[in-house]
Design brief:
The complex is a heterodimer of chains A (about 230) and B (about 290). Chain A has helices at about 20-35, 50-55, 55-60, 60-70, 80-90, 160-170, 200-210, and strands at about 15, 45-50, 90-95, 105-115, 120-130, 130-135, 140-145, 150-155, 175-185, 190-195, 215-220. By secondary structure, chain A is α+β, with helices and mostly antiparallel strands. Chain A folds into two domains: about 15-145, 2-Layer Sandwich (60s Ribosomal Protein L30, Chain: A); about 150-220, 2-Layer Sandwich (Alpha-Beta Plaits), CATH 3.30.70. In chain A, the strands form two sheets. Chain A has a six-stranded mixed β-sheet. The longest helix of chain A has 17 residues, at about 20-35. Chain A starts with 13 loop residues before the first strand and ends in a 9-residue tail after the last strand. The model of chain A has no long low-confidence stretch (mean pLDDT about 90). Chain B is mainly alpha-helical. Chain B has a single domain (about 5-290), classed as 2-methylcitrate dehydratase PrpD. Helix content of chain B is about 65%, strand content about 0%. Chain B has 13 helices and one strand, in the order H-H-H-H-H-E-H-H-H-H-H-H-H-H. Chain B is globular and about 60 Å long. The termini of chain B are far apart. The chains are: A alpha+beta (about 230), B mainly alpha (about 290). Strand 1 (about 15) of chain A pairs antiparallel with strand 1 of chain B, so a sheet runs across the interface.
């Protein structure tokens, strides 16, 4: 039972078959991972769990994830040839079946190595009908469905950091749709997950990155946006 | 603006709107869009549906699992030879449903309606009715809007996912959505549309989702073919003034309860039903080794 916002969630999405969860959803997870890595991808390892592992071949799940990693939408006809395309783009990709000890059957763990050797580690599930939920990025518990611009910070847990960031966003005319703060007392680190209604430009991210106590900032663009692949 | 079938009936009485119009006005409010934008999106949907309904008629597409294929082509051959037990209309509808199902299973571009697994039913039903009655494009687009309103109600109050409610939720919902659309496209009232939907849902209440090897191939494609027939016969009954004994909203509620009580072996896990037969298991082993 769920609230359906648009009739195009019922008649739709337009997609490459055969499965909205194993194909369209898988492509969207790949695309969120692409954005989490800021489109800088050298090597990818994908762990497939549960039904994703069992029926990957018969559902084109690997092709779908590769297509998403290349920035394709679930309706992109090139999704069928994405495994060849990703090789042509000099991206190494490997798929491994693994029990990830999670409850959702359609789950993938995507580890991306960027050109500078840094890694992005993402855990996400396909919930059905093409809807997805990323539950962990680089060890941070998140809930990202790909609808909003999402800023994820990692910073030293000192007073004022949150207000610095929110003040900056307000100054840039960016409205916060949802926000969550998590902290790790042992490490004296904290994290903000901020979803915004407006586009967050690269320069705003750079300003956040430059803040005193900031350790890392990840920005994830909404996946429904079209992108030239 | 609407959550239940009764809301559609009430709104249609208050405003004098058909179901498609209620769908449009609600979409505008909920999604900050315009009527033009909605119809232009629906035209994209129609293009995809028209293509998928004929993509496997002249040629067989190779599906990922290789379990199904060639059904639309075979039926079309028989029809061309003038052999048909069920008549032109039913046959053409089944051919279209098989075509989309096969195209979907071979990674073709389809429109989930309401899901990819049941994506053959709505296009087959609506395109066949459009052809038979020589209806214009806008009537078809409005039909899709009518279908979407019914689908939204089922999704809100029950589910359209096989993994949650079995095949009754996928092919049943698609047939219910299509039958309401047919009724409205042919001049029936909103009450008649919902009677058709209720009848279609009742016809396959309890149907499990038991995909062989977990793939969207068997029995899915044949259930798309029987699903479109279900949609058409249910619409025919409603257009003749036959009512559903149980009102639509109560049928949806019942479908949800049946889905909730359904054993997980029968909800897309490929363990029960025909997926668990010796032949079904053989396919599973074979596909695992691809």
């Amino acid at each position: 039972m769920k609230d359906v916002k648009s009739i195009f969630d019922v008649i739709g999405p337009i997609m490459i078959g055969p499965s909205s969860s194993h194909t369209a959803g898988a492509a969207r997870l790949g695309k969120i991972a692409r954005y989490a890595a800021h489109r800088d991808i050298k090597k990818v390892t994908v762990y497939l769990h549960g039904s994703f592992a069992e029926t990957a071949e018969g559902h084109g799940t690997k092709k779908a994830i590769a297509a998403g990693l290349l920035g394709m939408e679930p309706y992109d006809e090139r999704l069928r040839n994405s495994l060849e395309l990703i090789k042509k783009n000099n991206i190494e990709v490997e798929f491994i079946k693994k029990d990830l000890q999670v409850s959702h059957p359609n789950t993938a763990k995507i580890i991306i190595e960027r050109k500078d050797g840094s890694k992005i580690n993402l855990l996400g599930s396909s919930l059905g009908g093409g809807a997805v939920m990323v539950s962990n990025i680089n060890g941070f518990d998140v809930e990202i469905n790909g609808e909003y611009y999402t800023i994820i910070t990692k910073h030293t847990d000192v007073k004022g950091t949150i207000s610095d960031v929110t003040t900056l966003l307000a100054k840039e005319n960016i409205n916060i749709a949802n926000m969550k703060v998590i902290r790790d007392r042992n490490k004296k680190q904290a994290s903000m997950i901020i979803e915004t209604d407006q586009v967050v430009e690269e320069e705003v991210i750079n300003k956040i990155k430059a803040m005193q106590n900031m350790i890392d900032v990840v920005i994830i663009r909404p996946i429904k946006e079209n992108e030239d692949v | 603006m609407y959550r239940k079938g009764l809301d559609l009936i009430r709104l249609s009485k208050e405003k004098g709107w058909p179901i498609w119009k209620i769908a449009v006005e609600t979409e505008i409010i909920d999604n900050d869009t315009t009527e033009e934008e909605i119809f232009s999106k629906m035209q994209e949907v129609v293009k995809v549906m028209e293509n998928s309904s004929k993509a496997s008629v002249e040629k067989k597409n190779i599906t990922l699992g290789g379990i199904i294929g060639g059904e639309a082509n075979k039926l079309n051959q028989r029809l061309k030879e003038g052999e048909t037990l069920c008549g032109d209309t039913i046959n053409k509808a089944m051919i279209r449903a098989f075509s989309t199902s096969e195209y979907n299973a071979s990674m073709g571009k389809i429109c989930a309606a309401p899901t990819a697994g049941a994506s053959g039913i709505i296009p087959a039903a609506l395109l066949t009715v459009k052809e038979k009655y020589e209806l214009d494009d806008i009537t078809l687009e409005r039909g899709l809007l009518t279908a979407s309103a019914v689908g939204k109600i089922i999704s809100t109050n029950a589910t359209v996912a096989g993994a949650e409610g079995g095949c009754q939720a996928e092919c049943g919902s698609a047939a219910a959505m299509a039958s309401a659309a047919i009724v409205e496209m042919l001049g029936g009232t909103p009450e008649m549309s919902l009677n058709a939907s209720a009848i279609a849902l009742k016809n396959i209440m309890g149907l499990i989702c038991d995909p062989v090897a977990g793939l969207v191939e068997s029995p899915c494609s044949k259930r798309n073919s029987s699903g479109v027939v279900n949609a058409m016969t249910s619409a025919e009954l409603a257009l003749a003034g036959i009512e559903s004994v149980i009102p639509f909203d109560e049928v949806v509620e019942a479908m949800k309860k049946v889905g909730d009580d359904m054993h997980s072996d029968f909800k897309e896990t490929a363990r029960g039903g025909i997926a668990g037969t010796p032949t079904g298991i053989k396919f599973k082993e074979k596909i695992k080794n691809i």
